[in-house]
Amino acid sequence: MAEFWDRDRTYAFFRPYVDLCTRLSYRRMEVVGEPPRGYDGAVIIAPNHTNTLMDALVVLRSFPKGIVFGARADIFRKPAIARIMHMLKIVPLARSNRDRPEEVARNPQTFIEIDRVLEHGLPFCIFSEGRHRPMHSLLPIRRGVATLAFRSAEQRPTVVVPVGIDYSDWFRHRGLVRVKYGDPIDVNALLPSVQGLSVSTRDNVLQDELRDRLSKLIFYLPDDEHYEERLAEAEAEKPVRHRVRRVVQAVLSFPLFLVCALLSLPMWALAEWICSRMKDPAFQNTARFGVRMLGTPVFFVIWAVVLFLLLPWWAALCGLGLFLISYSVFYDWLGLVRPLGEPLW
Q1: What percentage of the chain exceeds 70 in pLDDT?
Q2: CATH of residue 109
Q3: Which of 131, 199, 202, 277 is the most interior residue, by most CB within 10 Å?
């Protein structure tokens, strides 16, 4: 298999389309701050993790030259899936309390592979909480990011870049998302201050610094017994879009909604069926993204055949153009009658 830093024609061909589908998953996508570019050393990207695959996809758009991600090891158990994940520049990271012993035993080899990625100037993204949780809070920062960072800093200049990701709604499609890049943490500058400390104490220094910075990059609420109360207060303070205006927009756009609902029926029906069977609702927008990405080319061809057989060429072209926006229009209209969450940032 090709190395992660080698140019992969398949990856290069599909990457713009994946980025487009990611962008179309949201009504508005805001990027605050500058992603690290041209840094002469290793760059480790460390976002918070609330929305499964969508977190990786919104970060991916900031790195047109590519970035390697770490993901849970159980995804790689089937060889065919493992090859696809490698093509997508994703490596397995196992946890002793979750994965098989043989998967945990492969971690040292994975760390060597990540080290080579950093050596070749490709950023590596690790979700520092270790698992996703759709809350305006943070889980404890796992040791993996500190282990990778200090290991890399012993060989080259290394920075850890905290990235805060906020969503207006984790569970409904076509909401708002904000990706906020913080100032890099210079790991090499930390080395003198942690010299002589135990490994766990040393790692805690970086973990605490990263957690502090992440909490300032997102709409953060402490995860305690008052979390729900604070969240309700914050939501009550946010102005809700005018209900009368929403009703008028929904009524006026209803004919367009019906046409778009028909054109995209196989896609949204499949997406919602998949979502209805999911135990973890945080995966729902990932499913809707996947259906859009895979279904659009297929149904574009089907509708092209049907429309050009039944309609004049100009009407068929208009129909195809409408199909391309139909999936978004369908969910946008639902957002009028079933309001999406308001951004709290």
Answers
A1: 99
A2: 3.40.1130.10
A3: 202
